[in-house]
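> example.struct
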């Protein structure tokens, strides 16, 4: 059952990814960089980095004094490390950390920026995770996340709402939150100036730790 859930959990994200194909990784990176511009030179966490697609781009950009590639999965971190080696990326400004997004091993108010690409729908508790992100960010620190929103087919929305707990149980994907829910979540956790860009199912959003 566990293995079944593990594989099924990727299905919705894969479908959404396929349907949002014009949002290339490079484009997502450029969008994230724009949101993160005020935090250049600081410490950035690429949370739920997976194979380090974005962590590697953050390091190569040389825009940050330190990039923390963080994931809960040891296997994903191993893969990330392998790609770093293959691409000959210097690890001078890069550290790999295994941690749960809801229990980050960082001092409160010590991080300038946190990026979480295609991840919030995979977290067991988005609410605990965003509260923890807010805790570690410095005042003025920036949180940038991307996920998918299942509201493109309006007639399906009421069905999704009713079926959400069952879908979540089967797929292991916690929730594909709405824009409003993402904004509420951020503001409940002390993150302000919520803003987002939508393209089909895809959303990239940003919020700032209140000063
Ligand atoms: C869809 S992948 C996204 C990977 C990467 N950000 C990207 O865009 O290619 C989601 C990642 O979330 C990680 N994840 C799931 N639960 C987590 C948790 N509680 N804490 C930290 N990472 C978690 C998974 O291990 C996986 O690598």
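> example.seq
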């Amino acid at each position: 059952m566990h293995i079944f859930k593990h594989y099924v959990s990727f299905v919705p994200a894969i479908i959404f990814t396929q349907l949002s194909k014009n949002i290339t990784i490079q484009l997502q990176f450029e969008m994230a960089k724009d949101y993160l511009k005020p935090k250049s030179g600081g410490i950035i966490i690429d949370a739920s980095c997976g194979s380090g697609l974005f962590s590697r781009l953050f390091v190569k950009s040389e825009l940050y004094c330190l990039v923390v590639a963080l994931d809960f999965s040891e296997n994903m971190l191993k893969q990330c490390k392998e790609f770093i080696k293959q691409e000959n990326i210097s690890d001078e400004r890069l550290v790999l950390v295994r941690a749960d997004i809801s229990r980050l091993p960082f001092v409160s108010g010590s991080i300038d920026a946190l990026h979480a690409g295609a991840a919030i729908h995979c977290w067991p508790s988005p609410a605990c995770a965003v509260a923890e992100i807010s805790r570690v960010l410095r005042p003025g620190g920036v949180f940038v996340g991307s996920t998918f929103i299942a509201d493109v087919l309006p007639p399906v929305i009421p069905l999704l709402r009713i079926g959400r707990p069952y879908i979540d149980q089967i797929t292991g994907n916690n929730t594909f939150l709405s824009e409003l829910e993402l904004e509420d979540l951020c503001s409940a956790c002390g993150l302000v100036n919520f803003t987002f860009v939508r393209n089909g199912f895809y959303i990239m959003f940003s919020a700032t730790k209140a000063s």
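> remarks
The longest helix spans residues 157-171.
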